[in-house]
Amino acid sequence: VVEALTDNGWKEVGKGTTIGYKRMLRFPVVKASQLRVKIDECRLTAHINQVAAYYAAPLQEVVQGEDWNNLPRAGWKQVADSPLTIDLGKSVTLASFTYAPSKAEAKPTMAFRYKFFVSMDGKHWKEVPANGEFSNIMHNPLPQTVTFGQKVQARYIKLEATTPTVTTAKVGMDEIGLITTP
């Protein structure tokens, strides 16, 4: 737990489940004279070498700055949760897709490795060749765009994803963006 000493006393400003190399935790701007890190639970003895605080400009709200999606979600329909399968409502030409973890938060259920598929009928699927990994997503959970080697036609998309611990990832429809081309 990260707490800040404000004019009104200690206030919790952030919370996480793990501490590790390059672990970053975003919290709202706060005027404070001191910060403290409290470790509530630990399997072994905790050894903290360095803690630092930096000002970073606030993240833009997804609704305001969604330049990683130009296909309105109003026509989308989620067909399945796992793997995430979406009917786009019409046939489109795709150039890329983006995975943007909800609220830019690292969660144990977030996607790490993936396979991306397209279909015209929702029954016959074609895998779109891509890297297959959202590199450093756990330490930097911001939108990551995967550009396809060539444009692909799709009415349906499917994202099969696993977490860093190789369990099934939970990805919401609002965490996916698509860039279409004419």
Write up this protein.
Helices cover 0% and strands 37% of the residues. By secondary structure, it is mainly β. Strands 4, 5, 6, 7, 8 and 9 form a six-stranded antiparallel beta sheet that branches. Strands 2-1-3 form a three-stranded antiparallel beta sheet, with no helix packed on it. Strand 6 and strand 7 form a beta hairpin.
Q: What is the tally of helical segments? A: 0
* Shape-level CATH architecture of the largest domain: Sandwich
What is the end-to-end distance? 48 Å
Number of strands: 9
The succession of helices and strands, N to C, reads EEEEEEEEE
Structural class given helices, strands, pairing?
Answer: mainly beta
Low-confidence stretches: 60-65
Net shape? elongated
Biggest β-sheet, characterized?
Answer: 6 strands, antiparallel
Strand-residue proportion: 35-45%
CATH topology category name of the largest domain: Jelly Rolls
How does the SSE layout of this entry go?
Elements: E1 2-6, E2 9-14, E3 34-37, E4 77-80, E5 84-99, E6 113-119, E7 126-127, E8 144-162, E9 176-180
Antiparallel strand pairs: 1-2, 1-3, 4-5, 5-8, 5-9, 6-7, 6-8
